[in-house]
Amino acid sequence: MKRTRTLIAEDEPLAAEALAAWVAELPQLELVASCSSGDSALAQIRALKPELVFMDINMPGMTGLQVLRALAAERASGSLTGPAPAVIFTTAYDEHALAAFELHALDYLLKPYAQERFQEAVEHALQALGSQLPQAQQALPALEALTQEDQDQTPLTRILVRDQGKIFPLQVEAIEYLRSDTKYTAVASKGRQFLVRLPITSFEQRLDASRFIKLQRGCIVNLDFVESMTPDESSQLVVQMQDGARFTASREVSKRLREQSI
């Protein structure tokens, strides 16, 4: 059996130990190095040319993102040859997860992660490595997504959501509404609701403002799927969605909607 050469770049000792133990349990993987800083990760990836890398985003020295940028620049200049490794990001921040996975990334592990989720990510990575796409093309979208993390405020056009062990591409224009508590957001589309482990604020700035409106703190609706708006006894507008859901707009939003109506 061909074993996939694997490198772990993780500065948290317990997380690194868990990853190393799980890698050792999988006969299809071979751990070639474990690094605790971005600088050492860059040096070891250059020297050892692993096929699969578990990359923490926040590390001392260089961040995981800076490591990937450096490798991409070296590969573009020709100073580094060979295929780019498949990268599975590890992060404790949902915001990175949105950028790295919900848009394009190969995969990510959101800390604290379970072994079952680790195995799922490895299976995904091995499938990608075995596909016909050049590895550089597989890794590039993730790098592009992360590069745009702080810069790209263009509206989202598509997100990938997980549900019952499957991943579904979801066109943003087909999203009817989003509801959330402090941690999760329910995304309603085409008669289904997908529970995403991200706060609604992660979506808010990336939705087309001409199509989506925030009715209240935990609710954003797509105006294309609004059937009607009716004032209640307090003069706040009750928004009737086409699927039967009803949401009450805040006083401020109700006033603005009334002013915009002709």
UniProtKB/TrEMBL annotation:
Residues 159-262 form the HTH LytTR-type domain. Gene3D superfamilies: 3.40.50.2300, LytTr DNA-binding domain (2.40.50.1020). The modification 4-aspartylphosphate is found at D56. Signal peptide: none annotated. The keyword DNA-binding applies. GO terms for molecular function: DNA binding; phosphorelay response regulator activity. Transmembrane segments: none annotated. Residues 5-126 form the Response regulatory domain. InterPro entries: CheY-like_superfamily, LytR-like, LytTR_DNA-bd_dom, Sig_transdc_resp-reg_receiver. Keywords: DNA-binding, Phosphoprotein. Coiled coil: none annotated. PANTHER family: STAGE 0 SPORULATION PROTEIN A HOMOLOG, TRANSCRIPTIONAL REGULATOR-RELATED. This is LytTR family DNA-binding domain-containing protein. It comes from Paucibacter sediminis.
